[in-house]
Amino acid sequence: MNLGTWKRWARQLSARTYTLYLAYRHPKTPWYAKAFAALIVGYVFSPIDPIPDFIPGVGLLDEMVVVPIGVLIAAKMIPRQVMEYCQEKACAVAKGEKPIGCAAAVVVVAVWLLCVVLAVFLAAEVLD
């Protein structure tokens, strides 16, 4: 695969992820699909990469395997009419400027900080 194919694939994945975000906010999306979509979107847009990209062999594994599979599973959970509506809305937004979600960034960072605090607490308990 050449560089142009990779860029096109990455753009499509980004558009699908934004579609999931819109579907997450749609009132007709079931709660379990909202929960799974929130996990996938949060993982994709998280500033912290659980598997650092510089690790040979597995560094890009999450972007190349885990994220596309997660997006596919989440899309299957959401009703077809909702996905079609959200895809149209995502295409319309893609032509313009994408909105910035500061609240979503705060939530993602707060979850990561909570995980770090929990890990430190558990490590302290084990070492005592």
Walk me through this protein's architecture.
The protein has helices at residues 3-25, 31-45, 61-77, 80-95, 102-127. The mean pLDDT is 81. Helix 2 (31-45) runs antiparallel to helix 3. The chain has one domain. The protein is globular and about 55 Å long. The longest helix has 26 residues, at 102-127. Helices cover 76% and strands 0% of the residues. With 128 residues, it is an all-alpha fold.
Name some characteristics of this structure.
mainly alpha; globular; 128 residues
Task: Provide the fold topology.
Layout (H helix, E strand, L loop, with lengths): L2 H23 L5 H15 L15 H17 L2 H16 L6 H26 L1
Structural class, from helix and strand content?
A: mainly alpha
Average pLDDT:
81
- C-alpha Rg (nearest Å): 17 Å
Number of domains: 1
What is the structure about, briefly put?
The protein has 128 residues and is mainly α. The protein has helices at 3-25, 31-45, 61-77, 80-95, 102-127.
